[in-house]
Amino acid sequence: MKSRFKNKLSVFLTGTLLLTGSMAEAQQNNLKAWLQLKSPGNKATTHTLEINTKADKLEYQSFDKLPVSISGTIIKEGADDKYVISIKANEDVYFNFKQSVAAGESNHDDCLFLMPGFWYRRNLRSPKEAPSFHSSDSWLVREDRLSTPLTGAFNEKTGEFYTVLRANEINKAAYTAVHEGEVILSEPSSIGFTGFENRDGKTWISYGFPFQEAPKTYIRKLNLAPSVVAFEKLEKGQEKILTWTFHKGQADGFSDFVAKVWEYSYDSYQPQPVKLDYSFDKVKEVLSNFFVESYTSNHDLKYYSGIHLLTHECYNNGGAEVGFIGRVLLNAYFALEYAEQTGNEKIKNDANSIFDSYLKNGFTETGFFREFIHYDHNDEPNVYSIRRQSEGIYAIMHYLKYEQEKGRKHPQWEDRMHKILSNFLAIQNEDGSFPRKFDKNSKIIDASGGSTPSATLPLVMASKYFKDKTYLASAKKTGAYLESEIISKSDYFSSTLDANCEDKEASLYASTAMYYLALTTKGKESKHYTDLAKKAAYFALSWYYTWDVPFAQGQMLGDIGLKSRGWGNVSVENNHIDVFIFELADVLTWLDQTTNEPRFTAFAEVIKTSMMQLLPFEGHMCGIERVGYYPEVVQHTNWDYGRNGKGFYNNYFAPGWTVASLWELLSTGSAQKFMSK
Question: What are the residue ranges spanned by the domains of the chain?
Answer without folding.
Answer: 23-269, 280-676
